[in-house]
Amino acid sequence: MNFRLTLFVLGWLLVFMGVVLLFPILFSLWFGDGEVMNFLASAVLTAGAGYGMTRWFRSDRRMTIREGFGIVTFGWLAFAIFGALPYLFGDVLSNPIDAFFESMSGFSTTGSTVITDLEPVPESILVWRSLTQWLGGMGIIVLSLAILPVLGVGGMQLFEAEVPGPTADRLRPRIQDTAKLLWGVYFFITALEAVFLMFGGMNFYEAVCHSLTTMATGGFSTENASIGAWDSTYIHVVITCFMFLAGVNFSLHFHCLRGSPKSYLKSEEFRFYVGLIAAAVLALFLFNLVVYDRAGTNLRDSTFNAVSLMTTTGYGTADYEGWPIVSQYMLITLMFVGGCAGSTGGGMKVVRVMLLLKHSVLQVTKLIHPKQVRFLKMDHKPVGDDVIQSILGFFALYIGLFLFASLAMAAFGVDLVTSGASVIACLSNIGPGLGDVGPTDNFAGLPGAGKVLLTFCMLFGRLELFTVMVVFVPAFWRK
Q1: Which of 58-72, 191-205, 338-352 has the lowest mean pLDDT?
Q2: pLDDT (mean) for 424-448
Q3: Residues forming beta bridges with residue 378, ordered by sequence position
Q4: Backbone phi and psi for residue 91, each to the nearest 5 degrees, phi listed first
Q5: pLDDT band per the 50, 70, 90 thresholds, residue 5
Q6: What angle do CA 170, 171, 172 make, to 5 degrees?
Q7: pLDDT of residue 183
Q8: CA distance linking residue 461 with residue 91, whole number of Å
């Protein structure tokens, strides 16, 4: 791997992040919360460190896939480290481990938090918290590709290393144009949601924060009770709809905005995604009849929380730990599935689950008819063996990492339910789990070693395992 090229590009990324750190200053001045110098110092340190790297490390070599993996993996670590500065300088979190956890939770769009009380936290800090999720949702590297010409060389390596899903959709021949289109669609839908939320009674600050974290499927809120703080069916329905949209492949949104709404129905993954959510909502509604007196409230909460957890947003309107055990197990299952490929959602992705099921059915069919020749297809096109092998490898690594991390959490003294739930909540980038990290709790009480482990689970989950795993292979470091 070319270290000089990797550090040079990382330097420009930090310069960009330093500029972004200036944005919350506008809200600090608006609210007068006294955090201006906090963000100014964070911005200067971040941009200064980045600029120093661009001056010290230069390389004329062309970027390869190795540098692509290295830049994305270490870039996200650097974002989380420097993104923790406002929490430390603002004295919101005094423990560096907690600040790193909160920052990585933001950039990875996980939504797990160690802040026990959001009410006294300065508004500009909460804006930064929401902004980290919005930046991480579509991908900071993808955004940088769109606006930083220095990243133009080898851009496809960075794009493929960061964009979620078994394959990366190119909407335009030039990767910079694809990045601009994806971010344009992302910005438009985010702004649209903010308008809808303000019509429902949220003020500008609340609408901005929640639209940022909804479209990122992040789930950070400005209130301790999350979306449950607004007893408004309108707001719950609006956020449910936009969470659903955030869990859809953004290339489909682009085609729809270009005048081709039929693209949704042509996508087999989208149809499977809708079917899974509809089946989950119906099942939860029936199981929860024993808990709710009013069918309307039952349907609203069942729908909201099913969509929230499957899209890995993590918002809450109800304490689902009070639901029947079967309902809780269903929610855990949805956490594993996640959103569509090319969406901002986490998890294993709908397309992988769908193709795994198809592959299993095909293998059983071959046992019955060994001489029959059948091919695995999606959207009426054959799926290559390399894609299937990648999906099988991803599934094995995903389950293996889940089991290993759950065992490690148990070794740190965490109970059985909390161990497994905290790992899947972070590995699938969801936020809340069950047990001591349920929807009405947080991650503050976990041991420090457990927080560090879960922080890296967030990174693994956001970059879909392979991008981070390859860094641990000795051959990656050899010339």
Answers
A1: 58-72
A2: 93
A3: 381
A4: 60, 25
A5: confident
A6: 90
A7: 85
A8: 29
The pLDDT tens digits of the residues spanning 90-129 come to: 989 999 999 999 999 999 999 999 999 998 999 999 999 9
Burial class (CB in 10 A: 0-12, 13-18, 19+), 280: buried
pLDDT in tens, 358-377: 999 998 988 888 877 788 88
Q: Which residues contact 356 (CB under 8 A, 6 or more apart)?
A: 391, 392, 395
**pLDDT over threshold 60, residue 164:** no
What letter represents residue 410's amino acid? A
C-alpha span between 340 and 303 (Å, rounded): 18
Beta-sheet pairing, 377-378 with 381-382: antiparallel
Place of tokens 């190795």: 66
> 21: buried, middle or exposed (CB in 10 Å: 19+, 13-18, 0-12)?
buried
For residue 464, which amino acid is it?
Answer: E
